Task: inverse folding
């Protein structure tokens, strides 16, 4: 379609950019180009200080509703509630960049396709120019952290202000070294979401440092600083520069107040598998006041080896948390409850909402939904009181409903969370929803075996991605949806970056989700109690416990785990710490097939695989 007649010339784009202090000519040229292409009516340059005004405008326009004092409610299009993996592509100009999971396509094919979709698609709308930084200012990785998102949706801007550091100062002095990140929403009613005629595309042109996303305003598809830049682009940049890793990792600190020692743990779990909860966890009350857990990050960590002290340092490039609402309550996660309380500026998406009381509710917030259903609407906006007999048991909130809050609201935010250097990493953990086989925790002390363990992370897919819930699948390092280059090279890059440390972190695999085969209950209560296996891991690293060596790693003895105040069923504890050799031998055959998909896998990974397989056969 031709460009809508108008505007270029009518809207004084340069005047708007001048007034907002956006002086970088490369950024200005980029804004001009996409303003013309998308056919937007107006532009606005966003600084974080615009938040209050944008909130007011969004409330006036009905894009947000008040959820009590200083909190907001939004509802997404019902066909637009999760990340799409199928429509997500990493494109470059080099066919050798094709891996198994990155859905590689030629950049020369994808750019015109996306620009075609975007042409004229923002007509009538404002294009918001959102300059951002994905790193604490001054970080050694800052060169990879700046970007400018262009979006035609105001609620996306409000989320970006919470999730990233936003303002023109982050990009003015950078010349051309920023990520170009264009988000065009499109007509969500007619994009054929999930059908063979799906119109959406979420493309990272990694070697051009350009992101083009069309067809969704759900956070995981539309907050380009977070998902597309913080993970896909950054993991590619980390490899291309040879210097760092960007992973879907949480990052936390544990302080033992008795000894004064502080440890840092990072680790990967697939979306909706417990990262945010673990990072926000407080020590279980039963352990007294001995430990403090500091929140550093809950979804992304960038890791590098520091030449000065030979340790691995991690930063959280984000500025906020985009958490799963389901099951968040006083008991499971009191820290989160406080972080999203009134007055925090939190935005809820797709929870249930009461327009009379401005209250919000989601499954697991309380044991039962509010008894008086007056005024309550489900995540689709339908009145609960008008539900038919068949609809009566449907969830009120979408399972992937979310809260968005800034890090500063999190009560256990680390005092040094903005330290540009990051924090030294003591342990790297992997985990996911695995109903059997994987014990509560097993430690792996060898680098290649740790990387091998991450590459063979297998877990149930969750509602955070469309159409995959419950499917057991491999999700290497929890990066399957964010892989940007071939898995063989990815493994080699891991061995290189972590191998450069002289004081290496210990690895471990954790599982909070083992279930009883008969009645399905979780064998481990999880949440705040997850600190206990981490404490054991730190003791193991310090040589204070020895554990029990198994073919798949070191498992705690029941006596070594601090279970003070817990009342686990005795049989459950046994199952939690047992390695079922026959079951693991079956798993090894699947792993062999999984790894065989990746040509050029480093020999060290195969050696680790064969070592584990042989140890299992010796049992
Ligand atoms: P993330 O997406 O990886 O950050 O995962 P979240 O921490 O947001 O958790 C996703 C879902 O899993 C939420 O509904 C949590 O309530 C639930 N969850 C988190 N940790 C645990 C746990 O230790 N045990 C159980 N049973 N559920 C958990
Ligand atoms: P999550 O973050 O991993 O906390 O669910 C969002 C996502 O990965 O889509
Ligand atoms: Mn994530
Ligand atoms: Mn999370």
Result:
């Amino acid at each position: 379609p031709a460009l809508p007649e108008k505007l270029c010339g009518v809207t004084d784009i340069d005047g708007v950019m001048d007034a907002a202090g956006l002086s970088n000519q490369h950024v200005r040229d980029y804004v001009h180009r996409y303003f013309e292409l998308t056919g937007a009516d107006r532009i606005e340059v966003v600084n974080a200080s615009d938040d209050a005004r944008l909130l007011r405008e969004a409330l006036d326009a009905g894009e947000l509703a008040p959820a009590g004092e200083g909190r907001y409610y939004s509802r997404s299009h019902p066909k637009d509630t999760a990340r799409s993996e199928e429509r997500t592509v990493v494109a470059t100009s080099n066919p050798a960049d094709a891996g198994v999971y990155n859905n590689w396509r030629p950049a020369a094919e994808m750019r015109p396709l996306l620009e075609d979709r975007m042409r004229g698609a923002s007509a009538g709308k404002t294009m918001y120019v959102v300059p951002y930084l994905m790193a604490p200012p001054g970080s050694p990785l800052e060169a990879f952290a700046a970007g400018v998102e262009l979006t035609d949706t105001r609620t996306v801007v409000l989320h970006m202000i919470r999730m990233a550091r936003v303002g023109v100062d982050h990009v003015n002095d950078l010349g051309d070294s920023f990520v170009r990140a264009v988000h065009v929403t499109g007509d969500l009613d007619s994009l054929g979401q999930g059908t063979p005629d799906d119109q959406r595309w979420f493309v990272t042109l990694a070697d051009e440092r350009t992101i083009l996303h069309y067809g969704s305003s759900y956070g995981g598809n539309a907050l380009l600083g977070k998902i597309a830049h913080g993970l896909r682009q950054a993991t590619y940049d980390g490899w291309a520069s040879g210097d760092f890793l960007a992973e879907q990792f949480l990052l936390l600190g544990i302080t033992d107040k008795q000894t004064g020692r502080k440890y840092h743990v990072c680790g990967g779990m697939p979306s909706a598998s417990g990262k945010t909860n673990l990072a926000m966890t407080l020590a279980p009350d039963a352990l007294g006041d001995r430990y403090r857990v500091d929140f550093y990050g809950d979804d992304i960590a960038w890791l590098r080896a520091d030449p000065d002290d030979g340790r691995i340092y991690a930063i959280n490039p984000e500025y906020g948390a985009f958490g799963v609402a389901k099951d968040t309550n006083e008991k499971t996660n009191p820290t989160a409850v406080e972080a999203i309380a009134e007055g925090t500026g939190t935005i809820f998406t797709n929870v249930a909402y009461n327009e009379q009381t401005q209250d919000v509710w989601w499954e697991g917030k309380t044991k039962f939904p509010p008894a008086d259903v007056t005024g309550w609407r489900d995540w689709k906006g339908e009145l609960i009181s008008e539900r038919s007999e068949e609809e009566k048991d449907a969830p009120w909130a979408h399972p992937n409903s979310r809260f968005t809050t800034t890090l500063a609201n999190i009560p256990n935010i680390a005092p040094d969370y903005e330290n540009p250097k990051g924090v030294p990493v003591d342990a790297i953990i992997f985990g996911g929803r695995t109903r059997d086989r994987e014990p509560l925790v097993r430690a792996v002390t060898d680098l290649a075996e740790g990387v091998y363990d991450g590459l063979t992370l297998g877990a149930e897919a969750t509602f955070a991605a469309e159409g995959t819930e419950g499917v057991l699948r491999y999700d290497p390092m929890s990066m399957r949806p964010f892989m940007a280059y071939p898995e063989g090279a990815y493994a080699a890059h891991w061995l290189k970056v972590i191998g450069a440390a002289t004081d290496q972190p210990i690895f471990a695999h954790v599982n909070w989700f083992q279930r009883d085969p008969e009645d399905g209950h979780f064998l481990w209560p999880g949440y705040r109690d997850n600190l206990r296996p981490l404490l054991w891991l730190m003791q193991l690293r310090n040589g204070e416990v020895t554990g029990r060596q198994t073919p798949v790693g070191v498992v705690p003895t029941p006596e070594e785990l601090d279970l003070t105040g817990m009342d686990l069923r005795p049989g459950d504890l046994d199952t939690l710490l047992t390695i079922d050799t026959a079951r693991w031998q079956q798993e090894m055959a699947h792993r062999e097939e999984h790894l065989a998909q990746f040509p050029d896998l480093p020999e060290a990974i195969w050696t680790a695989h064969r070592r584990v397989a042989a140890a299992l056969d010796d049992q």
About this structure: Confidence is low (pLDDT under 50) at residues 1-9.
